[in-house]
Design goal:
By secondary structure, the protein is of the alpha+beta class. The protein contains 9 helices and 57 strands. The two termini are 59 Å apart. The relative contact order is 0.04. Residues 385-655 form the EML-like second beta-propeller domain. It holds the Pfam family Beta-prop_EML_2. Residues 240-271, 744-770, 1164-1189 are annotated as: Disordered.
């Protein structure tokens, strides 16, 4: 594996599509998803920790943090969605559990929540099932599952009651369902009618109260699961929200409707789709807060009347360098979280930004307008298209489809500059000094100055749709891509120096060499070109039509090129040839970059992962893979000090990874990089700032003087006020002392009066108590007597009730006996019927069991025989394999002996190293000559391959035609055979009856001759085909020999290239030469080493002479076969003419015979009529047919036979014509 690794160090970006994508894990640390990681960002120390996602996931969908801030749940979608629970108290975020939905096929969890005691977890799946799953997550146990909604009503949020583990709430479009877990199931506790209300969020305020926000800007209060009321806002608040909505862009222009009654809430709401939406809501100790409208958070406080009033609104500020078409203050807030001490509020928006505000400042500044501030810095909100670095400053430039360009500092990890434009930025390039920048747009390319606080356009170039641009290492030139053309401009004169044309598809990557004399480019057409930037000519090229290249880079020594594309391989190219290929998995590489130390190559894939491959490239799959992004990587770069690997992706995130070895040390470079601190400032800005400073100084002096004067005046006034107050308070003290003395005397008087009154009250109270005791004793005696009477009455009633109970029990027992007798009789009848049925079915069942047992025995016997045969076959194969292993072992021992012999020969060859170096140089020159000759032979072989391929195609067509004709011929033969038998019989009768009319003309003999000639021609054609196949086999053998030679040459070149790489190290060079000698030089070649360089030429000449002889022999054979075919063609044409004349004569005779047959038919009809007119007796003997009837029958048979003969001749004629056509086509093809 590679000894160099890349560790995630810092990440800029936020994934806005994740539910609940920002959480506090302690007072200073915020967790948010970025790329394919969860980032723990410390806002005080400004550092990050990473929790990587799983390997096979397609991205995160939701986050949830436990109430004790210890566990983090991360939902990831895929073929089988999972929820991973991490322990945040562990340094690396240790993985605790991985939860699944069990047997339910789930692709995505839309939202999740932990219980208050952090023991339970709920997860809501997405459509079409919408299943809510309740886990005891530490034991990986699913406690309950329930379907919450249909596919038409999606769920937006689930939550636990913070005061009860078993109570939870689900809200969504037309859905508000409180559930309670009891007895292993989730049951809905109430059923509010909210089918027409679209709930976007909700929060628990008390144990029974839930406040929910809708897409129409309403805040609805539910208590015990039932809708109670709506929180109505004042007219001023409604006007503020409406004004902010009207000033928003596009879809954010909304109208806030007035509050309606509870009855109207349950009806469908019409006409308020433009109202601001309540997208997030959060409870805190004094009330709750919600996001209502674009970029606004309202704070509500609980009043004494158990209602809520608005106390403050917090706004997202407008950015100074923002774009008017996409203002930041009109972003929609997606998620909110509050710190554990409720000191800080953090929000995330749909624009991929995070803002924070201190809640302690809310109490201090009650009248001032509060604004959010960036939690760290501003991020990209869409796909990042460009990435560039410079050598003189620690700056990173990125461009994005969100119409912004940002300058980051990778040392301080801050955003230095930020600029938004009216159109999308497709590419970016930093000048080596870090003072200038190129930005490519759809209509032009702009050269910009990086000022102290702004990015300003300096020069515009007419380069349309510039997707790639790059400054040279010296900074005096830059290259810009427009479609398939590369334009090179001078940075000083802004002239178009060169236009590099050669690509047939769009150019996807360019890179300059170290001395700026060469430029390498790759494109969608599968071409990698190396250009000379002084002449504009191509120095080398490598074209693969099956691959569309997406990234290219020079190696550390700038001698080879590393390229990636859609064919799932990493290629190393040198001198127009692919030296090595590293195959990938099912994921394609999108970007590539190489370290300047030459130890590692980094690639970015379409799944967002980063791979570190050691250099020189290995032949097999050997790399280290890291989880970085959740979308395809678009660009990669390594800083000039070899400290950081920078990657950007379509997910809008920039990742900085620290490059270290396996021991944790950074890479050492020979170059010392010195960063400068100079900045650009325009003269007008500097003068304006100096003027402002002068004015501020003067203003400061004036304020100081005025402040001193005001302080003196205040001292005088305050001294006077102190004197007045001291006199006033001393007089008040005297008055208070006199009043105190008067109050003491009055208090003593009142104490005496109170003592007298209390004595009188105690006497009265004792008298009243004695009177009450006597009266209540008499009442008790009366009540006791009454109680005794009631008790006796109760006993009598009880005795009566017991007698009635005995009677009822006796009657019940009698009725029960009668019923038992009746049902026992019925039961006997049923048992008899059942016994009969059982006996019948038992017999049938036994028969079926016997049949099934017999069938099973047969099948078992068949299976046994089958598997015995298989076992015998496996034993035989096993024996054969054992024999093969013995043979292989013998071969291994013989090869081991050969290896030992080779080792002895290698020891002898140590002295010949210098001589072999000279031999290698001479062989290189010979290889170049052979390359030229081989290229010429390849062209000739390609032409011959084309002709052979065309001949093969024509041969295939002929074979198809032959197959069709053979099929038709067989069908016709099958039809002719019975007809020929009839013809032979008819011919005998015709010869006996009409010897005078027809004479045998010898047609059959000619047909026989024609068949013989046809068979002879078929044999000749088959012989020629066999000869052609043998020639093709010979050609294939020669081509295979050529390919083997080419592969051997390529291997030799690659090995020589490796030797040249270690030419400064004698030991390694010696080992490489030994390896080459052992691989390519045979034992017999050791003695005759000086003359070995002549052998390839002689072998090539022999092969050429042999091929020329074979070609001449084939030509002579072709000429002879053509002459023979011409002769046979002339002969067949003559025979065809004679056959046609004979057919015409036969047709004439046929017509005459048909006319005679008609005359005989007429005579026969007349004779039949005359016979019918004569009387004939039934008992008389039967008459024999007359002479005329036999004559007519024989004529009809003759007519049919002549037709058959005619058809046969026509068939033979058509067959001959087809053979002539086939023969002509074969001659034409030859």
């Amino acid at each position: 594996m590679s000894t160099v690794v890349a560790q995630p160090h810092f990440m800029f970006g936020l994934r806005s599509g994740v539910t609940n994508n920002v959480c506090f894990c302690d007072e200073q640390t915020v967790v948010f998803p970025s790329g394919n990681n969860c980032v723990c960002y410390n806002n005080v120390q400004k550092n990050q920790k990473f929790i990587p996602g799983s390997d096979r996931s397609r991205g995160m969908t939701a986050l949830a943090i436990s109430a004790n801030r210890r566990y983090l749940a991360v939902s990831e979608c895929g073929d089988r969605a999972t929820i991973t629970v991490f322990d945040l108290q562990h340094e690396q975020g240790r993985k605790r559990k991985v939860l699944t939905a069990g047997d339910v096929q789930v692709q995505e969890f839309g939202c999740m929540a932990f219980s208050p005691d952090s023991k339970y977890l709920i997860g809501q799946t997405s459509g079409p099932d919408w299943v809510l799953i309740f886990w005891l997550w530490e034991k990986h146990k699913v406690l309950a599952m329930v379907t919450t909604t249909t596919s038409n009503n999606p769920i937006t949020q689930v939550s636990f009651n913070p005061y009860n583990n078993m109570q939870l709430c689900v809200s969504g479009s037309g859905v508000f369902k409180p559930f309670r877990y009891a007895e292993g199931t989730l049951r809905q506790s109430s059923f509010p009618k909210v089918e027409s209300v679209n709930f976007l969020c909700h929060t628990w305020v008390t144990e029974e109260r839930v406040i929910a926000g809708t897409d129409t800007g309403r805040l609805l209060v539910f208590e015990s699961g039932d809708l109670r009321r709506e929180i109505s806002l004042s007219s001023e608040v409604m006007q503020e929200v409406t004004d902010r909505s009207e000033h928003g862009a596009g879809s954010l222009r909304r109208r806030f409707p007035p509050p309606s009654s509870l009855k109207e809430l349950e009806d469908p709401v019409e006409g308020d789709s433009s109202a601001p939406r309540v997208t997030a809501i959060l409870a805190f100790s004094r009330g709750f807060m919600c996001s209502m409208g674009p970029g606004t958070v309202y704070l509500f406080e609980k009043t004494k009347e158990d209602s809520y009033r608005k106390i403050k609104d917090i706004l997202i500020p407008a950015e100074l360098c923002g774009n008017e078409m996409n203002p930041t203050e009109y972003q929609e807030i997606h998620s909110m979280c509050i710190s554990p001490a409720q000191e800080t509020l953090v929000i995330s928006t749909d624009g991929g930004q995070m803002y924070a505000v201190s809640l302690s400042s809310v109490e201090k500044s009650k009248e001032e307008q509060l604004h959010f501030e960036f939690l760290s810095q501003s991020f990209h909100s869409k796909s990042i298209t460009g990435l560039s670095i410079c050598i003189r400053k620690p700056l990173i430039a990125t461009s994005s489809l969100d119409r912004s360009v940002r300058i980051w500092n990778y040392e301080t990890k801050e955003l230095e500059l930020y600029k938004e434009f009216q159109e999308e930025a497709h590419s970016v390039a930093l000048h080596p000094t870090g003072l200038f920048m190129l930005v490519g747009f759809s209509d032009k390319l702009r050269l910009m100055n990086l000022l102290i606080d702004d990015i300003r356009t300096f020069k515009e170039f007419t380069v349309r749709s510039c997707r790639e641009c790059a400054f040279s290492h010296g900074g005096h030139m830059f290259a810009a891509v427009s479609g398939n053309v590369i334009h090179i401009y001078s940075t000083t004169s802004f002239e178009n120096i060169l236009n590099l044309k050669g690509h047939n598809g769009k150019v996807r990557g360019i890179e300059w060499s170290q001395d700026d004399s060469r430029l390498v480019s790759c494109g969608m057409d599968g071409a990698v070109y190396e250009w000379n930037t002084w002449t504009g000519k191509r120095e080398s090229e490598c074209v693969l039509n099956s691959c569309s290249y997406t990234g290219v880079a020079f190696s550390s020594d700038y001698k080879t090129i590393v390229a990636v594309g859609t064919d799932l391989t990493l290629k190393e190219i040198q001198d127009c040839q692919v030296l090595r290929e590293v195959p990938a998995d099912d994921v394609a590489h999108n970007a590539v970059t190489t370290s300047r130390t030459g130890r590692v190559v980094f690639t970015g894939t379409s799944s967002g992962t980063i791979r570190a491959v050691k250099y020189p490239l290995p032949m097999q799959k050997d790399w280290i893979m890291y989880q970085a992004h959740c979308a395809p990587v678009t660009k990669m770069a390594i800083t000039f000090d070899e400290q950081f690997l920078l990657t950007v992706s379509e997910d809008g995130c920039l990742l900085m990874s620290k490059i270290v070895d396996k021991e944790g040390r950074g890479l050492k470079t020979n170059k010392q990089i010195i960063h400068t601190e100079e900045i650009l400032v325009t003269k007008s800005d500097l003068e304006e700032k100096n003027q402002n400073m002068m004015e501020l100084k003067m203003r400061l002096e004036e304020l100081q003087m005025e402040n001193e004067y005001q302080l003196r005046l205040k001292d005088i006034t305050y001294n006077e006020k102190i004197k007045e107050l001291s006199d006033k308070f001393s007089q008040q003290i005297k008055d208070l002392e006199a009043a105190q003395q008067a109050l003491k005397t009055e208090m003593e008087k009142q104490e005496r009066e109170h003592h007298d009154r209390s004595a009188q009250v105690t006497e009265n109270h004792s008298k009243e108590v004695t009177d009450l005791e006597t009266s209540y004793s008499q009442k008790l005696i009366v009540e006791h007597e009454r109680f005794i009477d009631l008790q006796q009455k109760c006993q009598r009633i009880q005795e009566n009730y017991e007698e009635r109970l005995k009677d009822a029990a006796e009657s019940k027992s009698r009725a029960l006996e009668e019923l038992t007798e009746l049902y026992e009789t019925k039961l006997r009848d049923k048992t008899e019927i059942l016994a009969q049925v059982r006996t019948r079915w038992r017999a049938e069942f036994k028969e079926t069991i016997k049949q099934m047992e017999e069938n099973e025995k047969r099948t078992i016997h068949d299976i046994q025989t089958k598997y015995e045969q298989k076992l015998n076959a496996e034993k035989e194969t096993n024996l054969s394999l054992k024999g093969q292993t013995d043979i292989m072992a013998q071969k291994f021992y013989s090869l081991q002996r050969q290896i030992d012999d080779r080792g002895a020969d290698i020891n002898k060859l140590k002295q010949e190293r210098q001589r072999l170096l000279g031999l290698i140089r001479s062989m290189e020159s010979d290889i170049e000559d052979l390359k030229r000759k081989i290229s010429g032979l390849e062209r000739t072989n390609q032409d011959k391959d084309k002709t052979i391929a065309s001949l093969k195609k024509k041969n295939m067509e002929l074979e198809k035609l032959k197959f069709v004709l053979d099929f038709q011929l067989n069908e016709l033969k099958n039809k002719i055979e019975p007809q020929q038998d009839d013809i032979s019989e008819m011919k005998e009768r015709i010869q006996q009856v009409f010897l005078s009319l027809f004479v045998e003309d010898g047609l059959e003999e000619e047909l026989v001759n024609l068949d013989k000639s046809n068979t002879h021609l078929k044999l000749s054609v088959s012989d020629l085909k066999l000869k052609l196949r043998t020639r093709e086999k010979e050609m294939h053998k020669e081509m295979q020999k050529m390919k083997d030679l080419e592969t051997q040459l390529q291997r030799l070149k690659s090995d020589l290239h490796d030797c040249v790489g270690v030419i400064q190290e004698p030991k390694k060079l010696k080992e490489c030469v030994k390896m080459i000698h052992a691989r390519y030089v045979q034992q017999t070649d050791v003695v005759s080493a000086p003359a070995d360089h002549l052998q390839p030429n002689t072998a090539f000449c022999r092969q050429r002479e042999h091929l020329e002889k074979t070609v001449t022999s084939l030509k002579t054979r072709l000429e002879k076969s053509a002459e023979e075919h011409e002769k046979t063609y002339v002969k067949i044409m003559k025979e065809n003419v004679t056959l046609i004349t004979e057919i015409n004569e036969l047709r004439k005779e046929l017509r005459s015979v048909r006319s005679q047959a008609k005359e005989y038919k007429a005579q026969l009809i007349v004779s039949k009529k005359s016979r019918q007119s004569r009387p004939s007796s039934e008992e008389g003997p039967k008459k024999e047919p007359s002479h005329e009837e036999t004559l007519i029958d024989s004529l009809l048979i003759c007519l049919s036979s002549s037709q058959m003969v005619n058809n046969k001749t026509l068939y033979s004629n058509s067959k001959v014509n087809l053979q002539i056509k086939i023969h002509n086509q074969s001659i034409y093809y030859f």
